[in-house]
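Morning!

This is the sequence you dropped in the shared folder:
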Amino acid sequence: MFKELDPLLHSELRLAVVSLLVSVESADFTYIREKTGATSGNLSVQIEKLRTAGYIQVEKGYRGKMPQTTCLITPAGVDAFERYVEALRSYINL
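The structure's back. C-alpha cells below.
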C-alpha cells in the first residue's frame, strides 16, 4: 500500500533544504543557496514555509557587521523527512 507523500516536502527546493539540514548541525542562508542553486527570493519563501510548518528553526543574527540567517532542522522536521523517505520507499518497493 502506498503511503501519502507530505505535500510540503514534495517541492523540490523544500525537499533539498530539509535533506541538507538533516545532514548538518546548522547551515547559513548563503550555504543553502549555494548548495541548492536557488535564487535568494525563492529560497527565502521556501524557508519561511518550512519554518511556519515547524520543520526548521530560523535564527537571525550577525557575523561581524554582516547579517546572517542560520537554519536548523527541528525534531518535527526530522520526523517529516523520515516519513517522506518511508513513503517514497512504499512507491518503489524497497
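Headline: The first strand starts at residue 27 and ends at 28.

More detail when I'm at my desk.
O.
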